[in-house]
Amino acid sequence: VQLVESGGGLVQAGGSLRLSCAASGFTFSTYALSWVRQAPGKGLEWISGIASDGSTSYKDSVKGRFIISRDNAKNTLYLQMNSLKPGDTAVYYCRVGATRGQGTQVTVSS
């Protein structure tokens, strides 16, 4: 299993970013996937998940701002992040089961 995140960066508060996670080594379309993040000095925090049937769920703090999606033809998971806040600053990881990628840094300046 390999997961490779990309799309992070530095953005001003109120801005947007789209994260991608390229997956390989498993049957992508049959697995539930999620995004988690880790802010400086804090533990891992689940923020969103998507089931194999496309149903989605979100942590309350990102609901209405973030959109998770998947492209099974491209074996890619996405996270569209809008109205970003400084509190969203973290390393973002995609996860399948207990496996996560190397992460991508998102920094939101005030």
Order of helices and strands: EEEEEEEEEEE
Structural class: mainly beta
Low-confidence stretches: none
Number of strands: 11
Shape type:
globular
Distance between the termini: 37 Å
The portion of residues assigned to helices is under 10%
List keywords for this structure.
4-stranded antiparallel sheet; single chain; 0% helix; 7-stranded mixed sheet; mainly beta; 110 residues
Give your account of this protein's structure.
It is built from no helices and 11 strands. It is globular and about 40 Å long. Strands 2, 4, 5, 6, 9, 10 and 11 form a 7-stranded mixed β-sheet that branches. Strands 1-3-8-7 form a 4-stranded antiparallel β-sheet, with no helix packed on it. With 110 residues, it is an all-beta fold. The mean pLDDT is 98.
Layout of SSEs?
Layout: E1 2-6, E2 9-12, E3 17-24, E4 33-38, E5 44-50, E6 56-58, E7 66-71, E8 76-81, E9 90-96, E10 99-100, E11 104-109
Parallel strand pairs: 2-11
Antiparallel strand pairs: 1-3, 3-8, 4-5, 4-9, 5-6, 7-8, 9-10, 9-11
In short:
The protein contains no helices and 11 strands.
